[in-house]
Design goal:
Blueprint lengths: L1 E10 L2 E11 L4 E5 L6 H8 L7 E6 L2 E2 L2 H4 L2 E4 L11 H11 L4 H14 L15 H13 L5 E5 L7 H16 L4 E4 L3 H7 L2 E6 L2 E7 H8 L3 E6 L11 E5 L2 E5 L3 H11 L1 E7 L4 H9 L2
Parallel strand pairs: 3-8, 3-9, 6-7, 7-8
Antiparallel strand pairs: 1-2, 1-4, 4-5, 9-10, 11-13, 11-14, 12-13
Length: 289
């Protein structure tokens, strides 16, 4: 379990973090969402020891996180930290050796990862000769090469095409399935919804919403949608505030059982369900409150 507790950080007069707390359990994929400048990168850098917090703490498995534990983490910064004139396979293996792996183990892990990320054919190419998307895959391989216990990834899907997104998403889900807590930030909210077990939304240095994807959607459910095969218009008969969406009736603040009674007495009900918002809609509402 990785726990980030009550982080505060200022840069001069700017409050970057104001009591930020979040956690990731073993095998949990947490999406960290916020606008540019909201505090995502600062939080991740503090978690990895790149920055020092003014106050607050990072706890791993119940104890304050130290240097030795961080060596077992996988970190992918938003800025690429690759050596452009090294060959791809050598690059990934080199970072494995920096993490204490033997040369043979690092080379073997690099080859396996690059195959998983569909880069086997580019192992002998210089990093600078790869596309930006493929460089991003190499950056992920670097963060995974030492089989980390925890993954913290800052915008890992930035600039990737849909195929590369699927490849990298599968790699993250596989790592979580093996028991690693995973935290990653992204502006691609459809991807957050697809890959994550839980979501944390940050705005102006504060956590403004958090929970599992299902919990967040349940909190924001507002409209009951009814489709009914009826000759008459039921707008005036249904309870609550009723609007039409094509052939459907959308109901807010109305008794759902009364709505079902009215609809079923008028005709055959073909749909009766609450509309669930997307994570993108939840995010937009959360940051504009």
């Amino acid at each position: 379990m990785l726990e980030i507790k009550d982080l505060h950080k200022r840069f001069g007069d700017t409050v970057a973090l104001d009591g930020v707390s979040l956690s990731a359990a073993p095998g949990e994929v947490v999406g960290f969402v916020g606008a540019n400048g909201a505090g995502k990168t600062t939080t991740m850098r503090i978690a990895m020891g790149v920055l020092a917090a003014d106050s607050g703490e990072i706890v791993y498995n119940g104890a304050p996180l130290g240097v030795e534990q961080r060596r077992r983490f996988g970190y992918m910064p938003s800025e690429r930290g690759l050596y452009p004139k090294m060959k791809t396979g050598e690059q990934v293996a080199y970072f494995g050796e920096l993490h204490g792996m033997s040369k043979a183990a690092a080379k073997r892990s690099a080859a396996e990862l690059l195959e998983q990320l569909d880069l086997s054919e580019r192992m002998g190419d210089f990093v600078q000769d790869l596309s930006l998307g493929n460089q991003q895959r190499v950056q992920l391989a670097v963060s995974l090469v030492h089989d980390p216990e925890v993954l913290i990834l800052d915008e890992p899907f930035s600039g990737l095409d849909p195929i590369a997104v699927d490849v990298m998403g599968t790699a993250l889900k596989d790592r979580a399935a093996a028991g690693a807590p995973v935290i990653f930030s992204s502006h691609q909210l459809d991807l957050i919804e697809r890959l994550c077990d839980s979501v944390v939304i940050i705005g102006n240095g504060r956590i403004i919403a958090s929970g599992t994807v299902e919990e967040l959607k349940a909190k924001e459910v507002k409209q009951l949608r009814i489709s009914v095969e009826a000759a008459e218009d039921l707008t005036a008969l249904l309870p609550g505030t009723v609007t039409r969406d094509g052939d459907d009736y959308l109901i807010e603040d109305g008794d759902d059982q009364e709505a079902l009674r009215v609809a079923s007495s008028a005709g055959r009900v073909t749909r009766f369900a609450y509309d669930q918002p997307t994570i993108a809609e939840i995010f937009r509402e959360a940051v504009t409150r």
